[in-house]
Amino acid sequence: MILHVEQRGNGPDLVLLHGWALHGGLWGSWLDALEDSYRLHLVDLPGHGHSAWSPGLRSLEQLAAAVRPTIPRGAVVLGWSLGGLLALEIAGRWPRAIRALVLVATTPRFVQAKDWEPAVPPEVLQDFARSLRVDHARTVQNFLALQTRGDEQAASTLRLMRRQLESHGPPDPRALATGLEILRSADLRSRIGTIAIPALVAAGENDRLTPPGAARALASALPQARLALMPRSAHAPFLSHPDAFLAELRPFLDRCTASAAPGRQGSAA
After folding, report:
1. Alpha-carbon span 12 to 74, nearest angstrom
2. Considering the entire predicted model, what is its pTM?
3. Angle at CA 22, nearest 5°, toward 166 and 83?
4. Is 207 a catalytic residue?
5. In this structure, how many other beta carbons lie within 10 angstroms of the beta carbon of residue 239?
6. Which pLDDT tens digit goes with each residue over 66-125?
7. Long-range pairs for 217-224 at CB < 8 Å and ≥24 separation?
8. For residue 73, how many other CB atoms are within 10 A of its CB?
9. Which parts of 35-97 are beta strand (E)?
10. Which of 120, 221, 240, 255 is 20 to 30 Å apart from 149, CA to CA?
11. Is 240 considered catalytic here?
């Protein structure tokens, strides 16, 4: 399948994978500061934004296979929430395809288990799945509100997310249902120790969906990771605190891409 990818800027490749129910146009104006130094690839995941849904997609593995062709060889991949889980899956399956990872408000397992406390209770995603079958538009709006809860900029961030969502049209309900099931069932904890590439793990200090404990555990398990906790922010720190987020992101990108040839293109191998 062919996914919609907006490309901006020049330089080493930076691929951005968005979270559940949103699209590649959500990231905000802080990206403007990167255009002179990086070639940005803003991907719309299947069934989101301008990308059509493929009914055959059922698992994280299949989603990773669908997204992989959008990633130029040697790119840095920035994934947020579900997009971060997807980035981990791609890096684990094709370790030579990616130069580095930026994992924002993500976790190797989204739901709690007896041996995994820093996550949401299973019934939270179960409730969203039931609600999705009744009114998917309202369910998405409720999920956006949950993402901003606890953020000092909650009201303005929620308005921005709602405005950005509307700019590309609603996601396909089938993509929403599959995405929730992936969030409910995926567990990459046993595999992330093999992802031996540089990684920046950025997390909101007040995130209710992917608590800071999950970010700490993720950063500890990845062999070359650094943790950046964003004070007074929740699940979307790049929107609520863009300057602080960029201050963490830019030095990491510059270090990781110092030897990359500007504007290099090509499919990941």
Report:
1. 8
2. 0.95
3. 165
4. yes
5. 26
6. 999 999 999 999 999 999 999 999 999 998 999 999 999 999 999 999 999 999 999 999
7. 217/107, 217/108, 217/118, 218/103, 218/106, 218/107, 218/108, 218/192, 221/108, 221/189, 221/192, 221/193, 222/101, 222/192, 222/193, 222/195, 223/193, 223/195, 223/196, 224/196, 224/197, 224/198, 224/199
8. 16
9. 39-43, 75-80
10. 221
11. no
- Tens digit of pLDDT for each residue in 25-43? 999 999 999 999 999 999 9
Tokens read off for 265: 């293109």
Question: Annotated catalytic residue: which of 44, 207, 233, 240?
Answer: 207
Distance CA 257, CA 51 (A): 29
Amino acid at 241: H
Minimal CA–CA distance to 20: which of 84, 99, 71?
84
Q: Tell me which residue has tokens 């504007």.
A: 263
Select which of 81, 136, 233, 241 is catalytic: 81
